[in-house]
Design a protein that fits this description.
By secondary structure, the protein is of the alpha/beta class. It is built from twelve helices and 14 strands. The chain is 41% helix and 21% strand. The protein is globular, with a radius of gyration of 20 Å.
């Protein structure tokens, strides 16, 4: 297969972890007879510094012309003034909107050998394997916002249409059909009108999938149950801000944000793939970042955008093998494990996939 992959490192450790993920993809392509070409673009703080905007036209054009996008992270203290008119995160939000990346998939699977890396009791974590499907182009992050009364009052508007809700809920049901056939829709319908529309629409869409179990759950109850009984969830679907918060909470089930990948999907094959962690400026440039989330995001890229399920499984198996053999980055290090840096872990996974 021939494919063009846009690589958008972004800021902080995004630069380091995307380099390792690209290295793994290059090795896998050579081993399996594929031809992947990679082209880099600027986004976030790096783009602001270079050209004054967080999403340059050239980067957007590159992404539109590519089969998939591998992204790192955006932001950092240098650009952290909340009053600034131009901020790094605006670049990623704009890219999602421009490309129609409406469904964010965040899988959370607790690896048996890392069960002690989490602060949650092992018996509670046992069997946890869930995916959060977060609506990505609507809600508070894209609604009307501003200041009034001479800056003394601020407002943000959560707005959703039936069509926006339908498409992401259907995506969740299609995903559940290939898993354990259970969907949990999360809202705040006891308070918010937008959530009441969300619930009405989700209930109606559920009737299209009679063989899949369905439940509604308030977001505060979901936050509690993710810690209390995470293994009971299969596919969770929710709106933008709730999904943002719940997935960061769920990341702690695995013991580290450095372990969790994500996929942001549009209609068709185009997708953006990124680790859910941020730019981690405190460790940027120190060869300490865990590249496994970025590498696992590359596996999702192969699965969802390129249709290469076997190749995706090869990367995931290589990560499992490395962990089973006791290799760790500092964030998941345990007594007796062999701790290594970002590049060494990337080299290890690269060598494993090259052997297939």
């Amino acid at each position: 297969m021939k494919a063009k992959i846009a690589v958008i490192p972004g800021d902080g450790i995004g630069v380091e972890v995307t380099a390792e993920a690209q290295k793994v993809l290059e090795a896998l392509a050579e081993a399996r007879g594929h031809s992947f070409t990679f082209e880099s673009g600027l986004l976030g703080g790096a783009a602001i510094d270079a050209v004054g905007v967080p999403l340059p036209d050239e980067t957007l054009a590159l992404c539109r012309a590519s089969d998939a996008i591998l992204f790192g992270a955006a932001g950092g203290p240098k650009w952290d003034d909340p009053r600034a008119k131009v901020r790094p995160e605006q670049g990623l939000l704009a890219l999602r909107k421009e490309l129609g990346l409406y469904a964010n998939l965040r899988p959370v699977k607790v690896n048996a050998v890392l069960v002690n890396a989490s602060t949650i009791k092992p018996e509670v974590l046992q069997g946890t394997d869930l995916i959060v499907v977060r609506e990505l182009t609507g809600g508070l992050y894209f609604g009307e916002s501003g200041r009034k009364d001479d800056g003394n009052t601020a407002y943000d508007t959560m707005i959703y249409s039936v069509a926006e809700i339908e498409r992401v809920v259907r995506a969740a049901f299609r995903l559940a059909a290939g898993r354990r056939k259970h969907v949990t829709s999360v809202d705040k319908a006891n308070v918010l009108e937008s959530s009441r529309l969300w619930r009405e629409t989700a209930v109606r869409v559920a009737t299209e999938f009679p063989d899949i179990a369905f439940e509604n759950l308030l977001v505060d109850a979901c936050a509690m149950h993710l810690i209390r009984r995470p293994s009971t969830f299969d596919v969770i679907v929710t709106e933008n801000m709730f999904g943002d918060i719940l997935t960061d909470e769920a990341s702690m089930l695995s013991g580290s944000m450095g372990m969790l990948p994500s996929a942001s999907l549009a209609e068709g094959r185009l997708g953006l793939y990124e680790p859910i962690h941020g730019t981690a400026p405190d460790i940027a440039g120190k060869d300490l970042a865990n590249p496994l989330a970025a590498i696992l995001s590359a596996a999702l890229l192969l699965r969802y955008s390129l249709g290469l399920e076997e190749e995706a499984a090869i990367i995931e198996a290589a990560v499992d093998r490395a962990l089973a053999e006791g290799y760790r980055t500092p964030d998941i290090a345990e007594p007796g494990s062999e701790t290594m840096g970002t590049r060494a872990m990337g080299d290890l996974i690269t060598n494993l996939v090259a052997q297939v």
